[in-house]
Amino acid sequence: MTIATDVAPKAATTLGTLGGDRPAERIEGARSRSASASAFSNPYLAGIGLGLVLLAAFVAMGRGLGASGFFSAVVAWGVDRVAPAHAEGNGFYASYLAYGNPLEGWLVFEVLGMMAGGLLSGLLAGRVKAVVEKGPRIGTAGRLTLAFAGGLAMAAGAKLARGCTSGQALTGGALLNAGSWAFMLAVFAGAYGMAWFVRRQWR
Amino acid sequence: MSAPWFKLGLFGDEASLLVAFLIGIGFGFALEHAGFGSARKLTGQFYFTDMTVFKVMFTAIVTAGLGVFFLGWMGLLDLSLIYMAPTFLAPQIVGGLLLGVGFVVGGYCPGTSVVAMATGRIDGLAVVLGLFAGMFAFGEAFPAIEGFYHSTALGPKTLPQVLDLPYGVVLFAVVLIALGGFAGATWVEQRMAARDRAPGEAVEEAS
User: Fold this and answer.
1) Which of residues 141-180 of A touch B (CB under 8 A)?
2) Is the pTM above the cut of 0.95?
3) B160 and B166 in contact (C-beta within 8 Å)?
4) Which of A191, B84, B109, B150 is the most exposed place for a label (fewest CB within 10 A)?
5) Is the peptide bond before B4 cis (omega within 30 degrees of 0)?
6) How far apart are CA A23 and CA B171, in angstroms?
7) Total number of domains constituting chain B
């Protein structure tokens, strides 16, 4: 629903006023499927696919998925290039430098694959488009500022927790890891608690 | 036991990076197909209008959780060789709260921001840049917060150990919670859609 209105808002509104309420929704859905972008997968099918990818990681590697480790590995590499003594003396950076070049880490290659896989899926479905996603009641600069701020907060959160929604909630969730389940509940609590304050960004 | 392959020496470090790339392709493909390259779809979860995040996440957790359990039960996968991250309870709860706040403010979690960026979302790119900046800030602040970072260390702990219940029982409970949650999530979505279809609201939704 949300992406369909994003893709063809003008057409959808016009058809909506001509055709009434319920039929317009069907027309809008059909339009976005044929003309511009196909509908997203059924969430349960997508979830089974995601679960099988995670299971493949367990079977092949004996470890799960991740994402936030990519960002910290790249930053540790960068700090080491600019100020090697500073990096060695910092327990956080040093933990990434202990096993050789951090850019040759497993998560770095996995996240590069994510970019390729996401792009492939988007191209096949006709969803690749340079756009800023936001609700109608916020400007582009405001949205991008909040996006950057969200990234800042998530970086600190993911490092305190030793992982993000991928490495903790998804991977640890499937392994029934106690800390991961505590983390996951906290993520939902934090997001629901904050949602009201940023509702104008989305709705 | 014939898995996990890497830890049993079926392939080496260099091949593991190729495996990482291939698994990443599957990961990114599944996230994008689920609609997780879209901030508006993701954040619908936190306004009860689109519960796809919960549905996809818990379907994946149940799928992989049952897969690991049955492969282990059949003797095909050595569960003791799968990395179990140790629990640091207080920093993980604080970290989770921070990540949740950042998720609804930024519109993506770290993994989905990568997929969003790859499909052209400029706000996804902004989250990615924020994540890099935040990692640097965390690294620079690390000496000051190192004490808290290492606090409440409980070691690797599973829910079955904490609850003192058999693994299969806890997994079965998770499956039941997920199934109940799916039904509840769909009910909530329908309630919210009915509300949004009320006269006057529909036009705003379409714009």
Assistant:
1) 143-180
2) no
3) yes
4) B150
5) yes
6) 43
7) 1
In a domain, B166, yes or no: yes
Taking only the tens of pLDDT, chain B with its 207 residues reads 689 999 999 999 999 999 999 999 999 999 999 999 999 999 999 999 999 999 999 999 999 999 999 999 999 999 999 999 999 999 999 999 999 999 999 999 999 999 999 999 999 999 999 999 999 999 999 999 999 999 999 999 999 999 999 999 999 999 999 999 999 999 999 999 999 887 554 444 444
Residues B139, A88 contacting (CB under 8 angstroms): no
Smallest CA–CA distance from A159 into chain B, residue? B95
| A126 in contact with chain B, both atoms CB, cutoff 8 A | no
B3 lies in some domain:
no
Answer yes or no: do B111 and A50 touch at CB < 8 A: no
- Which ipTM did the prediction report? 0.94
Q: Is the dihedral of CA A147, B87, B21, A37 positive or negative?
A: negative
Is A154 within 8 Å of B21 when comparing Cβ atoms?
no
Residue B6 falls within a domain, yes or no?
no
